[in-house]
Structure formats: structure tokens, C-alpha cells
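User: Structure please.
Assistant: Input sequence and predicted structure:
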Amino acid sequence: MVNHSYFYCVDRDFGPFFIKFCSYFPYNAKLCLNGNEYAKRQAALAGIEFEPLDNGFASCAHPRRLQRICERLSAAKIDALARKWMRLLPHPFTGRDRRAGYRYDISILQAEFSLTQVVDRPLTGRVFFEDVIRDNLDLGRPDQVSLIFQRRVNRRTQSRFRTRVITEGVNPSLHVDYKHSRIKQYFKLGRALRTETTINDTRDFGVGRRLHNLPALREIGFNANRRLLEVQQTSADCHIGQQTFDQVCQPLIANNQRAPALRFGDPRVQALLSVLPVFRLLPNGFSNRDLRTHLAPLLGQDPSIMTPGRMTYDLRRLRLHQLIQRIPKTHRYHVTPLGLRVAIFFTRTYNRLLRPGLAQICDPYPVDTPIRRHLDRLETAITDHIQQLNLAPKT
């Protein structure tokens, strides 16, 4: 006996899809369609040039128009597709059954909402995704899940809280579960970061299963994708920040030239960085003499005793670390956007945060300040905890 009948079809507006009919009562049916195929078909009909990326887009001539096409995929259009092909395909309900009121109603069995972010440097993208996996293995904890799916998690929440890293061949993927739904993230075809939220039970989020609830599910799915990326962005920003810090504060080789480090706590480096914002708005840049004139007072020296050779050494360091750049065919320099940001952030952090903060917490004659008070409490709590665990050395 045939249990199910499959019809694989191609629609002018939706592209390929299939319908499965059950051969016994109550004659359930299943419609499976792909929103990416709908978007590709509509883009082609609208004359929008694009490069496909498997189940997504690698590039597109008019991204805003393509986005509007994706947003126009509605519950009404899906319902119209189903009714159109129900009239064309043989199925268990005869015309007499339909006139008697027996007809299919559509509910959502599974919905997937995806975001594909194509990177211009695939190798860098793969490195980034591997860092994402390493730094986010705790995403499956209840507190993180409640943030990503925006649902309250308590002791009565029936769910498995976990993060899984699944490797197929050499392509790892990150999975975060919540009840019957999950987020899957992987690096697609070595070119794009793919984030997919799959909802297998709409009632996980207090939403009904009828097709008219699709807009609410769309909001939940895409918001979950965005919140996951926001959580991951925190660790990625730290990674980018570490790269910038190392670029400035560590020795490097640039154009086969060795550039000594610009040490964060070095008084001369702090003085150099304090001078750079002064030169940022000069249309003709600044010279060796200009730097010497402004730098000497900050170091408590007379400009006349600071040699041009020493200034050339400092200019070379700043240039190879990309904080300044030489104006072609001159001996003058411009401050780069990176140089301005680094100079302002480094000097303000050093002068307004580190030095005053260290003075408050390390002063042998302490003043009662909030940061000193809280650190004293922390030190007392750690000492008490060590004593309770009998970890302190015996005297």
C-alpha cells in the first residue's frame, strides 16, 4: 500500500517545491518551499543580476530591491501557492468533498529564518568563524539562551541547554538548542557566515501554528539571528581590539623595515601620542621641526637639545605603525584616522583612568574612594574563601 504520494513541482513565482499527500485518513499533506528560491525567481523576473551561493546570494546588483523582494514573501502568497496547486494536482479530497467543506488548512510545521553574510576575504572569514566557535562554547547556557531567544528561562523550562560543535568533513558548525528550536551557524562554502534559526514548534514562543502567524515567527527568527551575532560581536570586537593594540604596542616588520614598539606606558610614547591630535587639522601636515617644538615641553626638555635624528627615529616609528603617513615628494606628514583614534584613546586612558585609578588603589595612605573600598572588600572575600577551603599555608 502506498503511504504517501510526492509531487515535485516548479512554479513560475516560487521555483522548485514539493507537496506530499498522505493516502489514508485524515489525508494530511505537507508543502515544502524555499524562500531563497522564491527570491531568486523574483529577482530574475525583475531583471536583477545576481550570483547565487547555493541556498543564498553571493552578490547582487541591487541589494535593496532584493531585500524588498524577500520582505514581500507573505503568508497570503504561500496560501495562494498552495491553493493554486491543489487545483492542479490529484489529492484525496474530491470536488464533492470540497463542496461539503472538507478542505486543507495550512499550519506551520517548521520555519527557518536565515542570514547569510558574505565576506570579501574568505580566509579571514574562516579564521573569524573558528574564533567564534572557540569563544562562544557557553552559548547554550540558560542565561545566554534567554538572551538570544528572548524567552524567560526558569527551573520549569523543559529544555536541553547545550552548545554543540558538529564537524562534517572539515566544515564545523555551531548549534544552540532551545526547547524544540535551534540556531545553526557555519561558514558556507568558504565564503559566507550563515546563521539559521529553525523553529520546529511555534508554541515554544507562545505563537500559534496557523499560517497567519508567519509575520510573528519572522520577527522571532530574525531577531534571534541578530541577537546571536550581537553576543558574538563582543568577543570579535575584543579580538579586533587586540590586533590593533599589538599593531601599535609590539615591534613589527613593515615593507621589510623593522619598526620598534610604541610601548603603552612609555612616557615618550605618551608624549608623542599627545602631540598627534594637534597636527590632525593642519592642511599641509607637519614637519620634523614642528614635532620637536611641541614634543620637547611635554618631556621637560629644551627643543634645541633634541636632535633631528631623534625626531626622524620617532617619525619612522609612527609611520611604520601607520599612525602617520608621509605626504608624497615632501618631508611633511599627515596624521591618519587610525593615528588620531589611537592617540586620543591611549592618552585619555593612561591619564584619566590608569594613573588616577592606580593612585587610589595603591596609595599606602589610602583615601576612602569607591574603587578602593570595593577592591578591599573583594580581597577580604577571597581571603575568607581561601580560609574556608583550608587552602591557606599553615604557619
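The longest helix spans residues 214-249.
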